[in-house]
C-alpha cells in the first residue's frame, strides 16, 4: 500500500527516544522530512545522527514542551527548514512517580500535567494555526490505555492522558473543516526508556494482564502512527486507538 507520505514534513516532540524515535525512523523510511524536538540535548543529537546515517533528512530542535512560546518557535523552525508542516507527533511525555495518589506532591502533578497535557496543547495549538492556513494537517498524540481505564499508582498520569484523549476529540471537531485529522494512540506498557525500570520478574507478571501475553515494543506502535499520518487514513479523525495486545477491548 502506497502511503503517499513522500516529501511530507513532520515535527516530532520527544523524538529523541522511545516511541518518538521509532516513529521518526518509520516516517523517514516513507520519505518524510523530520524535525525532532526534545529537551534532552545529547540524546537528541545522537538520535539525529542515527537517523541521518539511515538516510533521513532531519533537523533537531531543543524544546521544553511546557513553554508555549518555545513550541511556537519549534513549529516556525520546521516551516523555515522545510517550507511547511504537514504532521505533528506529540510524543514528549513523562511517567511516574509510581506511588499512590495520596503520596503524590504538587511538584509531581505540575510536571505530569505540564509535559503530558499542556505540552500537547502548546504544540498542537502552534501547529494547528499553521495547518489551518494550508488546509491540510495530521496531528497524532501519544495518549495511553491509562487515559481510558486509569490504574492504581498512576492516577495523575492517567488523568493527563485522559485529557489528551478529550483534547483530541475536541480538536478533531473544530479542525476537520480545514482538512486536519487529529487522532491519539493508546499504547499499553511498551518497552522504552520510560519503562526501563521493569525487571524480568515485573515483565513476566505484567504480561499476564495482556491477552497476547506480552508487553509492547516500539515497533508495535509506530506503524499505526505512520498510518494515521498517511493519505490512507484520511477519513479517520477524533479517535483514540488502543494498541495494547488486547489489554483494552472495545
Ligand atoms: N512506554 C510506554 O509504556 C507508554 C505507554 C503509553 C503511552 N506512552 C506515552 O508515549 C510517549 C513516549 O513515551 P516513551 O515510552 O517513548 O518514553 P521515552 O522516555 O523513551 O521518551 C519520551 C521523550 O520525551 C522527552 N521529554 C520529556 N519531557 C520533555 C519536555 N518537557 N519537553 C520535550 N521533551 C520532553 C524525553 O527527553 C524523551 O526523549 C509519552 O507521551 C508516554 O506517556 C508510553
Provide tags for this entry.
250 residues; alpha/beta; Rossmann fold; 7-stranded parallel beta sheet; 7 helices; 15% strand; globular; binds nicotinamide-adenine-dinucleotide
Chain-wise SSE layout:
Blueprint: E1 9-13, H1 18-29, E2 33-38, H2 41-53, E3 58-62, H3 68-82, E4 87-90, H4 106-134, E5 137-142, H5 155-175, E6 180-187, H6 200-207, H7 218-229, E7 240-243
Parallel strand pairs: 1-2, 1-4, 2-3, 4-5, 5-6, 6-7
Helix pairs in contact: 1-7, 3-4, 4-5
Bound molecules: nicotinamide-adenine-dinucleotide.
Nicotinamide-adenine-dinucleotide binds next to helix 1.
What does this structure look like?
By secondary structure, the protein is of the alpha/beta class. The chain is built from 7 helices and 7 strands; from the N terminus they run βαβαβαβαβαβααβ. It has a single domain, classed as NAD(P)-binding Rossmann-like Domain (Rossmann fold), CATH 3.40.50.720. A 7-stranded parallel sheet has the order 3-2-1-4-5-6-7, with helices on both faces. The radius of gyration is 17 Å and the shape is globular. The protein starts with 8 loop residues before the first strand and ends in a 7-residue tail after the last strand. The structure holds nicotinamide-adenine-dinucleotide. The site of nicotinamide-adenine-dinucleotide has 30 residues, from α1.
Give the structure's gist in a few sentences:
44% of the residues lie in helices and 15% in strands. The chain is α/β, with parallel strands linked by helices and 250 residues long.
Amino acid at each position: 500500500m502506497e502511503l503517499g507520505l513522500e516529501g511530507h514534513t513532520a515535527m516530532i516532540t520527544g523524538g529523541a527516544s522511545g516511541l518518538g524515535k521509532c516513529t521518526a525512523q518509520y516516517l523517514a523510511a516513507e520519505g518524510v522530512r523530520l524535525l525532532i524536538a526534545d529537551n534532552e540535548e545529547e540524546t537528541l543529537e545522537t538520535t539525529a545522527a542515527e537517523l541521518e546515517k539511515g538516510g533521513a533528512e532531519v533537523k533537531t530542535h531543543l524544546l521544553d514542551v511546557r513553554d508555549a512560546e518555545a513550541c511556537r518557535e519549534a513549529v516556525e523552525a520546521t516551516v523555515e527548514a522545510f517550507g511547511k508542516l504537514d504532521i505533528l507527533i506529540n510524543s514528549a511525555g513523562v511517567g511516574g512517580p509510581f506511588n499512590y495518589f495520596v503520596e503524590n506532591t504538587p511538584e509531581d502533578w505540575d510536571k505530569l500535567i505540564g509535559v503530558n497535557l499542556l505540552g500537547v496543547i502548546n504544540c498542537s495549538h502552534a501547529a494547528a494555526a499553521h495547518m489551518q492556513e494550508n488546509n491540510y494537517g495530521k496531528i497524532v498524540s501519544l495518549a495511553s490505555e491509562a487515559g481510558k481505564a486509569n490504574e492504581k499508582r498512576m492516577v495523575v498520569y492517567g488523568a493527563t492522558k485522559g485529557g489528551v484523549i478529550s483534547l483530541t476529540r475536541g480538536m478533531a471537531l473544530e479542525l476537520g473543516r480545514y482538512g486536519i485529522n487529529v487522532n491519539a494512540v493508546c499504547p499499553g506498557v511498551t518497552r522504552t526508556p520510560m519503562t526501563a525500570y521493569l525487571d524480568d520478574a515485573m515483565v513476566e507478571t505484567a504480561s499476564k494482564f495482556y491477552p497476547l501475553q506480552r508487553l509492547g515494543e516500539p515497533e508495535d506502535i509506530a506503524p499505526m502512527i505512520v498510518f494515521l499520518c498517511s493519505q490512507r487514513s484520511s477519513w479517520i479523525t477524533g479517535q483514540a486507538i488502543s494498541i495494547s495486545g488486547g489489554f483494552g477491548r472495545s
